[in-house]
Design brief:
By secondary structure, the chain is α/β, with parallel strands linked by helices. Helices cover about 40% and strands about 25% of the residues. Strand 9 and strand 10 form a beta hairpin.
Length: about 270
């Protein structure tokens, strides 16, 4: 597979350059692949993702390194160029879907508006495409969901609506940053199944970010383990679960055995 995303020597500082929190990270995401970032809070996972989206908070910046998306140098993009890329080339979903949706506007209208802006669809076309997306993401009775407000939907349904919005512009890369963390186990499994199906049917490239190794093991072909702003180990998921070279990775896997990693590890050893 050819690389869609290439990160080399990435360093990120906070407090307006006074403190470095990501230290020379190298990452490659192949086109059509599913790559996972796993690590504890504060390991640098989200900051790396936000650097790929051009959405670092004030006072946080890329101090050095090379970030390329499909050969384009992301460190040189203007605000206008970033706006043109987000949603159409690359998109993201985050942990709390309700905070990214307007509670006073019906969710279907919000999705249709994104389609009109990003794809230039007319009002009727946008509604039809919105209904198709909602159905594709496993929402039964999409016509009903289209007319509902956020307070009328469950967390799992809201996350699927947010996925529909993220996919509205038909991006090549979807970043799922702790996208299932707030969901109960059953709903989490359903959303993960939707992501797998999307990746298989559309060729979507997925970057899955989680502190939960079981989630990453279930979805990803290749895993990067991060600790304190560094990649301490990476490799194909099966190989990494079967044998770890870094003590932190070993501890991480041992602490997650009760949460679904054991099955994946046994398959890798078999």
């Amino acid at each position: 597979m050819t690389a869609l995303v290439e990160v080399s020597g990435l360093r990120i500082t906070v407090d307006n350059g006074r403190r470095e929190v990501v230290h020379g990270v190298d990452i490659e995401i192949p086109r059509g692949g599913t790559v996972g970032f796993v690590g504890e809070s504060g390991s640098g996972k989200t900051l790396i993702c936000r650097s790929l989206l051009g959405l670092l908070p004030p006072g946080v910046e890329v101090s050095s390194g090379d970030l390329r998306y499909d050969g384009r140098d992301l460190t040189r993009l203007t605000d206008s160029q970033w706006r043109g890329m987000r949603g159409t080339d690359l998109a993201a979903v985050f942990q709390d879907p309700a905070s990214y949706l307007n509670p006073s506007i019906r969710v279907g209208k919000q999705l249709a508006e994104v389609l009109r802006v990003r794809l230039g669809l007319g009002r009727r076309e946008a509604k039809q495409r919105a209904l198709e997306l909602l159905e594709q993401l496993g929402l039964h009775r999409p016509e009903l969901v289209y007319g509902q407000y956020t307070n009328e939907l469950s967390g799992g349904m809201l996350q699927r609506v947010l996925l529909a919005i993220a996919l509205a512009g038909e991006p090549d890369l979807l970043i799922a940053d702790e996208a299932t963390t707030a969901l109960d186990v059953t709903i989490q499994a359903e959303v993960l199944d939707v992501l797998v199906e999307l990746q298989e049917t559309t060729g979507l490239t997925l970057l899955v970010v989680s502190h939960d190794l079981a989630v990453v093991a279930q979805l990803c072909d290749h895993v990067y383990v991060l600790q304190d702003g560094r990649v301490v180990e990476h490799g194909p998921t099966g190989a990494l679960l079967a044998e770890q070279h870094d003590p932190y990775t070993r501890r991480l896997i041992e602490s997650h055995l009760a949460f679904g990693v054991e099955h994946a590890r046994n398959e890798a050893v078999a």
